[in-house]
Structures are given as C-alpha cells and as structure tokens.
Design goal:
Blueprint lengths: L13 E8 L5 H11 L5 H14 L14 H6 L6 E6 L4 E6 L7 H8 L4 E7 L6 H12 L4 E7 L8 H15 L7 E5 L23 H7 L13 E2 L2 E3 L11 E5 L10 E5 L3 E10 L2 E3 L7 E6 L10 E3 L6 E12 L6 E2 L3 E6 L2 E14 L6 E2 L4 E2 L4 E14 L10 E5 L6 E10 L1
Parallel strand pairs: 1-3, 1-4, 4-5, 5-6
Antiparallel strand pairs: 2-3, 7-14, 8-9, 9-13, 10-11, 10-14, 11-12, 11-13, 15-21, 15-23, 16-20, 17-18, 17-22, 18-19, 18-21, 22-23
Length: 428
C-alpha cells in the first residue's frame, strides 16, 4: 500500500492542521485512520504496526501506533510529544501535528497549533465536553487558528445516537460563542472504524454534512493569510563571490504578509529608506509576484544597507517599530517560572534581541477565563499577560493582524532553551 504523488501535487496548496482534545479521545487513532484511508502508508509501515498490535494483544490493528512513536507513548497509550505527519490527496497536501491531551503537555499542544490553519478538537461521545476540551478550544482561539472542527468521536460506542451528538455540539457551540472562533464545523465520527473519515458513514444517515476528509480538502484557506500588509523579514543576504555571477545582491526570506511584485515601491526598516523591487525569484526561477508563505529572493533597485533582521514593507503601511511590548505568553519552562525583572533573549521573525520583563498584569485561568491580577509569576503551562522592554526595536504587528510578525519566542540565555511563546497585543 504505497502512495504515488503526481507532479501536479507539488503545485497544490498546503493545509496544516493540528489535533487537540483530552486524553484517550482518539487523536492518534484519527490520524492513523486518515493516513490509512488516503493510502499514505508504505507496506512495511503497516506491517510493523500490525506486528506491534499483535504483540500487545490488541484485537485490531492499532493505527494510533503510527504517530505514537516514543516508547513511553506506546507503553502508556498516550501522546507526549508533537508528532508531524505528511500526506497528500489529489486535491491538497497536508501536514498534521498530533498534539498531546495531558494538561502537563499544554506547551507541546501550543507548539503544534501555533502554525496550524485548522484545529481538530476531538471529544469522546461517551464523556462529552471535559476540561481539556475547553482548554484546547481556548488555546486555539488565543493562537488565532482560523478554523475549528469539533469531531465527536467514538459514535459507535453510543449506538450512533443523534441525540448524543446534538447535545455535545450545542454545548460546544455555546462555549465557543465566548471565544474568537471565526469558523466552526461539527462532524460525528468513529476513528477506529473509519466512519465519516474518508467517506460518509451509512451508520449515521441523520448526518447530512461532509466527511472529515472532504471538509479538509475543500476548506478555503487562501483568504486566511494577510494579503494586505506587506511584510518581508530579511533572513539572509545573498552576495555570491564568483567570477560567473557579478554584482548580484539579493535578500532572501519568507513572505509574512501582503503581495510583492517587481516594480513595487518598498521601504526598508529600520533605516526608513525607500526603493523599488527589480525582481523576485524562487528556486525555480523568477516569478511575477510573491505572497505568504512563499520563500523568495528579492532584488532592489538601489544599493541600500539591508541585513538580516531588517523588514521590507510598504512606505505607507509599515509595522510598529517598538521596544515596549504587551503580550500574552504561554510559559514552557518546568524549572524556573517567569518573574518580573527576569531577563531573556527573544527571537522575533529573523531579528534577535534581549528583553526584560517589566510587569505581569495577570495570570489567566484557561478553564474559567478568570484573570488573577494578584499573580506574581507564571509556572509551567500557565498563560498570562506581560509587559516587556527590548534592547532593540521590534518590527512587529499585533498577533491578531499577522501571526508571523505578531509572535515571538522567549529564550533562556543560560541554557539556550525556549521557555515561552508570546503573542503581541500592543506595541509602542
């Protein structure tokens, strides 16, 4: 059972999605079923999973083993780390992030969902909404994931009950109304048996919506990215030292927003000088326009001082140039909490800086949405609003406006570990 990807697949758009939900709701099984039903497995992969399932005494092929690769994950039957899987159909390419459900691995879930276009929130039909279901829905809204799909799983264990499905759907929609969720769909499924995964299920004739795979293939995501505000963080200056190529100076990076075309007038920050684009090229040659998330090399008409960390934008539509930042942060360090006065390194787009935490406004209870304004620190997996000051200005937008230029990571300078993920609320 091998997958053959036609040349046309390389030109199709890419959908990134993450799974979320409580423990044992079937996230890994769902992904395994998607890979199996779309024939994205090699024969030896399937045989290995069948062998391990038999050795464990399972009465069926445990497709969750396809993503639960750590030994501890297989022993406990849980997901600990984020597992990424790739597959493609004739209509679209996909990257899946299988994220953990346990509360102590909230940081891993945030990592997987931070770049997702869509989040699949799974709910066990027998249990209904639980604390982790609400927690992950809130985190997805906080991370501005544009599309949510609630999958009511294990419908086979409640006799395919329409009443159970509608009760869970109504409860979740009521909770989602309190959050910033622009697009929500609800699908009843059985990941173990494949009902409503790749094909509509005959066991639930009362459900008139699409299968999960049909929804993923036809979801419109082109308008989710910011195509108005031009943002091009310079990652690398290409200056070949050869006798064949002379006088070439290109600026390489990934387009974070807007549409760039040759001839456009642009401004380089932080210098503020303006010039025009002479050409845009990719690994396949020159192109007539560039848009997110394309990786391109831009050539400019004038010889300007442009280096890594600079930003190319429109002269009259520039990001904020700020050192005082208000942000929501998810703390990821299990050894030392975030405290006021702490000094860290930060990485924002292609720019690095140092920063000091000036104020902790509140710690947020993601279950009740209560703000604890008396909090003095943020421990592992806790979320709060902070104010920090950077040593050099950041060229940034609000996170709700642009997820790329509105987010940054916090790094412990002593250990070089990523200890926090932050979303910019205000910059001045």
């Amino acid at each position: 059972m091998t997958q053959v990807i036609e040349p046309e697949v390389s030109r199709m758009d890419l959908l990134r999605f993450a799974t979320a939900g409580s423990v044992d709701d079937g996230k890994s099984t769902l992904i395994g079923r998607l890979l199996y039903d779309t024939k994205a497995l090699f024969t030896d992969q399937l045989e290995a999973v069948q062998a391990v399932s038999a050795a464990r005494g399972d009465e069926y092929t445990n497709l969750a083993l396809l993503t639960d690769g750590l030994r501890a994950e297989r022993e406990q039957g849980i997901t600990i780390d984020v597992a990424y899987r790739y597959f493609a159909t004739p209509r679209r390419k996909f990257i899946i992030a299988d994220t953990p459900g346990h509360i102590q691995y909230t940081r891993n879930m945030v990592t997987g969902a931070s770049t997702a276009d869509l989040a699949l929130i799974l709910v066990d039909a027998r249990k209904g909404l639980v604390e982790q279901s609400r927690r992950h829905a809130f985190l997805c809204s906080l991370l501005r994931v544009p599309h949510l799909v609630l999958c009511v799983n294990k419908m086979d264990l409640v006799d395919w009950s329409q009443e159970v499905f509608e009760r869970i759907a109504d409860e979740f929609c009521l909770f989602a109304a309190k959050l910033d969720v622009p697009d929500l769909s609800v699908i009843p499924i059985s990941a173990l048996h494949g009902d409503n995964i790749a094909e509509r299920s005959a066991n639930m004739p009362w459900y008139q919506g699409p299968s999960l795979l049909h929804h993923l293939e036809h979801l419109h995501i082109a308008s989710d990215r910011n195509l108005v505000d031009v943002r091009f963080p310079v990652q690398y200056v290409i200056r070949p030292q050869s006798t064949v190529v002379r006088d070439f100076r290109g600026y390489a990076g990934q387009v974070a927003g807007g549409v760039l075309k040759p001839g456009d007038e642009v401004m380089v920050l932080p210098s503020g000088f303006t010039t025009r684009i002479t050409s845009i090229s990719t690994a396949d040659g020159e192109v007539e326009e560039a848009f997110p998330p394309m990786s391109v090399t831009i050539r400019l008409a004038d010889e300007l001082d442009v280096s890594r960390g600079d930003m190319i934008c429109r002269p009259h539509n520039a990001p904020a140039v700020a050192q005082d930042i208000e942000a929501m942060v998810c703390w990821m360090d299990e050894t030392r909490p975030l405290r006021v006065g702490g000094k860290y390194a930060i990485k924002h787009t292609t720019r690095s800086a140092r920063a000091a935490i000036r104020e902790l406004h509140y710690r947020l209870d993601v279950n009740s949405l209560h703000r604890d304004e008396g909090a003095t620190e943020l421990a592992l997996n806790e979320i709060g609003r902070i104010r920090l000051r950077t040593t050099v200005p950041l060229l940034c937008d609000e996170y709700r406006r642009n997820r790329t230029t509105g987010g940054f990571i916090i790094i412990d300078e002593q250990t070089n570990r990523t200890v926090g993920a932050a979303m910019i609320l205000e910059a001045s």
